[in-house]
Each structure stands twice: as structure tokens, then as C-alpha cells.
Design a protein that fits this description.
single chain, about 775 residues, mainly alpha, 42 helices, about 5% strand
Length: about 775
């Protein structure tokens, strides 16, 4: 293919006596010059492959260019600028610019984007791949044929020119996670930077990315991996072992473990798994640990306590708790006198049992009381006990365990253990009522976990902080910020359960702000993840129903809430969702069902133990919904009673707002006019500012529906038309209605048409639904 852009670049540079093209081998210099000369007029002297000349010949070429007539035009193509006075040529106007590898690389506009992505824009590879693609070859075949061609090219034009040390360096670089000079030096290549620079100067297969790092395209990486695979087994193992040692020294333990596996160094694999296996798991490297365990022989996998514990953790992470429990119990029997191994298995088994709602206290108490155990293990045991006792409602035992764990904190040397202990202390403190300890512990745990890349732990800490600031402070903005951090951490941990938890917290934050777009985005992510956890499904469904009501879809909203409201986990959430369901039923014209449900919800609201500020206020808002629903249902006395219940429940300013709003809206509904429009406007604005956007949008939607009802009621629907609509509501056809009412079928159809028009509907079903909402069909 002809590359007009590159030809134009050369033509612009050729306006000066000397055109300079400096780029490594494989950059497409020769082809670009050929395309330019095919169109150019005038005489050009081409000096190609200057990098192949020795110092004397290079100096002679430079002297010839400098002595030439100023009107003589030269094109100089070279892999390297070494020994060439390019700076002087540019300064004195002999040359206008230098055309480099970036200019010669293909862009997406010059060829298919997938070809550029595959070849990295490498001119030789991209040109060949593009030609194949244009000839109709399927993309998968294009990739493979391009790889084969470039392997031959690299063998012929590049690899043979390298010395043994350079080849060793490149192959070592290809087995590392990145072509990092520091890692290469650690692997035994003291001149790694200089050697990589020299290689990059001669070929486009490797380039410097800055900060002493280099990179290559996928084709080159594949070529180098094949070269390694062709090595004798012992040489290949030695190469991977050098890489493993360098990676371990640099702290890249996961990559080092993979390298030890590739080197077939079972002793190195076992040592790293013993020393750092659980830390790798906590850093979401379960797959790395699993691959390492698979490389071990069956005897070690069956008998080594630490390996058994790691196998159990891997099974638990993949959702196989029963298998994990069996392995952990076997690990305990195999631990013998190894205190560290015994502690590791005990802690993991206790967490597994606690997550299933079972009491792991006996295991933890023995570990916590063992004075021969390390401080880290005892502190972890106390912290898990504290969280478990607090969640079960045993506040004295939780407080005692918190104190024991806190006393051991100064003795903990490992930061990852400290972060875990702090997170559990924070959870226990929330449930035992020590707000300040919970806040300080969780914030420190979250910061430390993020620093250590313990992202799953960080996410859980941020989720707990979300709960804390919402329940205790009713601070929706801080809740939103913590939820954002929780989502980021969970996604970096790549843990589906943590991601779901964080997304649900984020979804709730956006709902509280009344942000429809934000809540829809979170819901879409949750839908993509899917879950069989019914509690989570019901929580998301209930929030979706509220959002439907924002848009006036009351029938759909109460249909969803009717199946989910009494299955929510928290009692005040159940009261809130039940109140909303009753309100939406009332607005949809289902008055009998609504009143029955509201009576049940009011009774439940009186029994809610709302200790936190958020829960108290949400129960007050739920009562507001109940009062409005009963007003819509025409039960004014019941509505007034519910309003009085709000008023006496608390002297909180937000609850005071809710009380005034409830009294105003119920009066408005009863009198069919807004009692105090300004009071309502100010109250809704203040509620929105305090993070009650979901309630504000619900009430605005209800107000809109009620205003529509007032308007439609002014339409002159005749008694005969109402009778016809009632019969339609019971499923009768026009012919059946005619027979039952003694009218002709034509008259019945006329009544139906008139009713549809007056109610501004598009058909019978919609007309019946609107009439039902208006209370015309009672």
C-alpha cells in the first residue's frame, strides 16, 4: 500500500539539501524512500545503511556530503546517528528535520485498527499484515502469518547480529513482568541499560519507555518466548531461576513464584508458599498460589500443613466452603508443633465458620490464650472474636475482646496483620457502640490496606465506614465518598463478592442523592455480575422500584416491592419499603390493599429499634409515606394519627421537617388543594440538601400524580361512561357489557371511546388503569 503521509514528510524534508531518516531496522526506511523516489523529480544521492559502515567509511561519507555542491540533494537513511554531525547539519540549514521511527510507524487511519493494535504500528509487520487483510485473509490467519513472517525477518535481519550476552539479556527480559533495568541488573546483567539502549538503537523490536524501562510489541514477545522454549531444559530452568531471584529480591513475590514454577525449583516454590503464600492470597493473587500448588507433588499437597491451608483458602475463594473446611481441619492435624502453621489454619477455619454464621469461639479462645503463640496470631484471634461477639449482640464480651486485641497492637510487626486486626476492631466497635474507636480503626485499616495493596480488606473497611457515617451521622456525602473508595478497592481486588457489596453501597448513595443516572449505572454493573444471594437481589430490586416511582410508574413499583419489602435484611429498611409499597398502591387506585398494608407497616414501625440517626429519620419518612397513603385512600383520621406519631417520636430537626411536610401534604390531599405551597417547597429543598433525594423525588412524583388526578377529575366523565369502565375493569367485552346494561353494543363502544378521549389515554387498558387511580372504579 502507498503511504501518502510518509511520502509527504520526506518531500517536505527534501526541500533542504539533506534529508535525514534515522530509525532502527524494520522501521520501513527503504520502502518509504522507494515510494518517494517513484514520484520525485530531480537527482538524489541515496546513502543507505550508514550504520553498517566502519568509522573510517562513515567519516568519508560525511566528508563527501559536506564537500558536495550546495545544490546537490542527498537522502541519508541510517539506523543510528552515531558519528554523524546531525546537530550541525540542522543548525546550518543543511537539513530541515529528522524523520524518525514514530513518523514511519503505521497509524490507525492508514490501516485497519486491529492490525495496528496487533503489530504496534511496526512498519514491516503492519505493511505485511495489512496486505494480507486487504486480500481477504481472516484476521486470525493474518495474525499467525504475520508472526511467522516476522520470526523469519528477525532471524535473518536482527537476531543473528546480536552476541550471546545480548541474546541472553533479551530473553531474560522477556520472562519478566516488565523489561525493567533494575530487575535485569538483579538477574545478573550489570550493563543492562546500556545493552538495551544499543539494541533499541539498531532495531524497532525494542524501544525505551522511560524510567529505565523498555518495551516490545506482541510479535517480538512471542518471538522471544519461542526462542526460550527452544533452549535446552537446563538452560531454560537457569534463565527462569535468575529471573525468580531478581523478582523475589525486588519484592515481586507473585511473579517470583511463577518464575520458580517455570524453573522447576520445587524447593523455591515451597519456601515462598510457606513464607508469603497467605499474604499473596490476601493481595488477591489466589491464581498464582493455585498454579504454584499444582506444580508440587501429591505428597506435599496432602501432608504439608501450610500447603493444605493454602489449598483451603483457594477453594474458599472459588466458592467451595465445604471442601475448604475439610482441608483446614486436616491442616490442623498436620501442624504438629509448628505454632505458625497451627495459627494460620485456626484463623482461616474460624473466619470460614464465622462467615457461615457458626460459632468459632472455641478455636479462637484457645489460640488467643496461647502465650507461646506470636503476638500477631493472638491479636488476630482476639479481633475475630470481638467482631463475632459484637455481631451476635454480646457487647460485654465484644468490648473485652476489643481491649485484648488493642493491647497487642503495639507488638504487631507486620503491617498486613495490623490492618486486618484494625478492620475487625472497627467492625466490632460499630456494633458495640464505640463510634470514635470504630472510625479511627477503620480509617487506619483502610489507608494501610490500600498502601499494602490489600484491596479486598480495604474495600471491606470502606464499606464499614459507609455504614458508620450513615447510621451514626446520617452523612450522605461522606457515605458517597467512602462508597467510591470501596468500589475502586474492590475492583482492584478482583473479588466478585466485594465488588457486589461495594456497588450496592454505591447504588444506595446515589439513590439517597436522588441521582437517577448514577444509580442506573451502578445497577447495570450489578446486573452484569449477577448473584444468587437473595438478600442482595431484594435490596437492588427495592431500590429499582423506588426509581420507577420517580418516573410515575407506580404499578410496576408496587408490583416489585410487594414481592421484596418484607425480605429485606434490616427492620427499618423493611418498614420503609413496605410504606412505599402501600403508598404506590394508593396512588394506583388499589385502596383496600393499600390500607391493609399500611396498617401492618405502622405496627412494624412501632417495633423498630432505631438506634442510629439514619434509622430514626428513615422510620419518620416511612411514617410520612404511610400518612400520605392513607390520605389518598380517603382515611383522614388514620392519616392524622400517623402524623402525630411522627411528631412525638423525636425532636430532631429533620424529623421536624418530615412532620410538617406530612401534615401539609395530608391536608392538601384532604382539601384537594395545596395547604402551604411555600412550606412544602422549602421543606423538600432542605430534605434534598440533607441527603433525602430519594424521598424528595418520590414525593414530587406523588404530587405530580395527584395534580394529574385533580385535572382529570375535572373532565366530564359521565356516570354511564364510569359504569362501562367498571365492567371493562372486570374483564367484560363490549358485547357482554351491552347485554348486561341493556344498551346497544354501538352505544357501549361510544362510551368507551369517549372515556378514552376524556382521560387522554391511548386505549382501553390505559383508560381503565387511569380510572382506577382516580378512584372512579371503587
Amino acid at each position: 500500500m502507498k503511504r501518502s503521509r510518509v511520502v509527504a514528510l520526506i518531500a517536505a524534508a527534501a526541500a533542504s539539501p539533506l534529508t535525514l531518516i534515522v530509525a532502527p531496522a524494520g522501521s520501513g526506511k527503504s520502502r518509504a524512500i522507494s515510494e518517494f523516489l517513484a514520484e520525485a523529480t530531480g537527482s538524489f544521492d541515496v546513502v543507505d545503511a550508514v550504520d553498517r559502515l566502519d568509522a573510517v567509511e562513515r567519516a568519508a561519507a560525511v566528508a563527501a556530503i559536506d564537500r558536495a555542491d550546495p545544490t546537490q540533494r542527498w537522502i541519508l537513511a541510517t539506523r543510528s546517528s552515531e558519528g554523524l554531525p546531525i546537530g550541525s547539519w540542522l543548525a546550518y540549514g543543511r537539513a530541515r528535520r529528522v524523520i524518525g521511527v514514530a513518523d514511519l510507524s503505521f497509524t490507525a487511519s492508514e490501516t485497519r485498527e486491529e492490525v495496528v493494535a496487533f503489530t504496534g504500528g511496526w512498519a514491516v509487520a503492519a505493511s505485511f499484515a495489512h496486505a494480507l487483510a486487504e486480500s481477504g485473509v481472516e484476521l486470525r490467519a493474518v495474525r499467525e502469518q504475520t508472526r511467522e513472517m516476522m520470526r523469519s525477518f528477525l532471524d535473518e535481519r536482527f537476531y543473528g547480529e546480536l552476541n550471546d550476552e545480548q541474546r541472553e539479556l533479551l530473553e531474560a527480559a522477556s520472562v519478566l513482568p516488565a523489561m525493567d533495568v533494575a530487575l535485569l541488573e538483579g538477574a545478573g546483567f550489570p550493563d543492562a541499560y546500556g545493552a538495551m539502549q544499543r539494541i533499541a538503537a539498531r532495531t524497532a523490536m525494542v524501544w525505551e519507555t522511560g524510567a529505565a524501562r523498555f518495551a516490545c510489541n506482541d510479535i517480538t514477545a512471542d518471538y522471544l518466548r519461542r526462542r526460550i522454549a527452544m533452549r535446552e531444559r537446563g538452560q531454560r530452568a537457569q534463565l527462569y531461576e535468575r529471573a525468580a531471584s531478581a523478582l523475589e529480591s525486588s519484592g515481586a513475590i507473585g511473579a517470583a513464584l511463577d518464575a520458580y514454577v517455570a524453573a522447576e525449583r520445587r524447593d523455591g516454590v515451597v519456601r515462598l508458599l510457606h513464607e508469603r503464600g497467605l499474604q499473596l492470597v490476601d493481595r488477591a493473587h489466589v491464581d498464582v498460589v493455585h498454579r504454584a500448588i499444582d506444580a508440587l507433588d501429591d505428597k506435599i499437597k496432602r501432608e504439608d500443613s501450610v500447603i493444605l491451608t493454602l489449598r483451603a483458602v483457594a477453594h474458599a475463594a472459588k466458592g467451595r466452603p465445604v471442601r475448604a473446611e475439610g482441608l483446614l481441619k486436616r491442616a490442623l492435624t498436620r501442624a504438629g508443633n509448628d505454632k505458625a502453621a497451627h495459627a494460620a489454619a485456626t484463623l482461616r477455619l474460624s473466619l470460614l465458620l464465622a462467615n457461615r454464621g457458626e460459632d468459632a469461639g472455641s478455636h479462637l479462645e484457645l489460640l488467643a490464650a496461647d502465650g507461646d503463640q506470636a503476638a500477631e496470631a493472638r491479636a488476630e484471634a482476639w479481633s475475630i472474636l470481638a467482631a463475632h461477639r459484637a455481631l451476635s449482640g454480646d457487647t460485654p464480651a465484644a468490648t473485652s475482646a476489643i481491649q485484648r486485641a488493642s493491647e497487642l497492637l503495639p507488638s504487631i510487626e507486620r503491617d498486613d496483620v495490623r490492618a486486618k486486626v484494625l478492620q475487625r476492631i472497627g467492625v466490632a466497635a460499630i456494633n458495640s457502640g464505640d463510634v470514635e474507636l470504630a472510625r479511627s480503626s477503620l480509617e487506619e485499616a483502610a489507608e494501610l490496606a490500600m498502601e499494602l495493596e490489600l484491596f479486598s480488606l480495604a474495600s471491606r473497611a470502606y464499606v464499614s465506614l459507609c455504614r458508620l457515617v450513615l447510621d451514626k451521622d446520617d452523612n450522605v456525602e461522606q457515605h458517597r465518598l467512602y462508597s467510591q473508595s470501596a468500589v475502586v478497592a474492590a475492583k482492584r481486588a478482583d473479588n466478585a463478592f466485594d465488588v457486589q457489596t461495594a456497588l450496592i453501597v454505591g447504588l444506595r448513595a446515589e439513590m439517597l442523592r436522588g441521582n437517577e443516572d448514577g444509580s442506573c449505572a451502578f445497577e447495570a454493573e450489578l446486573k452484569a455480575l449477577r448473584t444468587a444471594d437473595e438478600a442482595r437481589v431484594h435490596a437492588v430490586s427495592s431500590l429499582k422500584a423506588v426509581r420507577m416511582a420517580w418516573n410515575g410508574k407506580f404499578s410496576e413499583a408496587h408490583y416489585i416491592l410487594g414481592r421484596t419489602w418484607d425480605r429485606l435484611y434490616l427492620d427499618f429498611d423493611r418498614v420503609m419499603a413496605g410504606a412505599l409499597c402501600g403508598l404506590f398502591l394508593a396512588v394506583d387506585g388499589r385502596r383496600t390493599e393499600s390500607s391493609r398494608l399500611i396498617t401492618d407497616v405502622v405496627r412494624k414501625a412501632n417495633g423498630v429499634s432505631a438506634n442510629g440517626l439514619f434509622a430514626k429519620r428513615r422510620v419518620a419518612v416511612a411514617r410520612l409515606y404511610c400518612a400520605v397513603a392513607e390520605s389518598v385512600n380517603g382515611r383522614s383520621l388514620q392519616a392524622a394519627t400517623i402524623v402525630r406519631q411522627i411528631a412525638v417520636s423525636d425532636d430532631d430537626p429533620i424529623i421536624g421537617l418530615v412532620t410538617n411536610l406530612a401534615a401539609n401534604i395530608t391536608t392538601s390531599v384532604r382539601q384537594a388543594a395545596t395547604a402551604d405551597a411555600e412550606l412544602e417547597r422549602v421543606a423538600l429543598a432542605r430534605l434534598m440538601a440533607h441527603g433525602y433525594g430519594d424521598a424528595v423525588r418520590v414525593l414530587e412524583a406523588i404530587r405530580g400524580a395527584l395534580e394529574e388526578r385533580k385535572f382529570l377529575k375535572r373532565m366530564s366523565i359521565t356516570p354511564a361512561e364510569v359504569i362501562v369502565l367498571r365492567h371493562l375493569n372486570h374483564g367484560l367485552s363490549p358485547k357482554e357489557i351491552a347485554a348486561r346494561t341493556g344498551r346497544s353494543v354501538f352505544t357501549v363502544r361510544a362510551h368507551i371511546a369517549n372515556a378514552i378521549g376524556k382521560l387522554r389515554c391511548n386505549g382501553r387498558a390505559e383508560a381503565v388503569a387511569v380510572a382506577r387511580r382516580l378512584g372512579l372504579l371503587d
